[in-house]
Amino acid sequence: MENKLDLQSLLEEADRLILVAGLQALLRERIAAYNTAISVAIGRGAPQPARSMFGLDEAHAMLRRVGAAPSAF
């Protein structure tokens, strides 16, 4: 169930920038964990884990809700 609350209108710009920076850091960590899990699975010849296990889509969705796109790094 997705909450349609408009986060952009509830946050001051300074708070929104801090939130965006934190969400981008969270996304980078989740991507790194996902990539590590993929590498380990390939190395072991095991099935790769599902992307959904790492919450990447949720992090992307939260970034969009606060008016930001995921950062490129």
Structural class: mainly alpha
Order of helices and strands: HHH
What is Rg? 15 Å
Spans of at least 5 consecutive residues whose pLDDT stays below 50 are none
Keywords: Plasmid
Would you write up a description of this structure?
The structure is a single chain. The chain contains three helices and no strands. It is mainly alpha-helical and 73 residues long. Helix 2 (13-44) runs antiparallel to helix 3. It is elongated.
Write the layout of secondary structure elements.
Layout: H1 7-10, H2 13-44, H3 56-65
Gist of the model:
This protein is an all-alpha fold and 73 residues long. Helix content is 63%, strand content 0%.
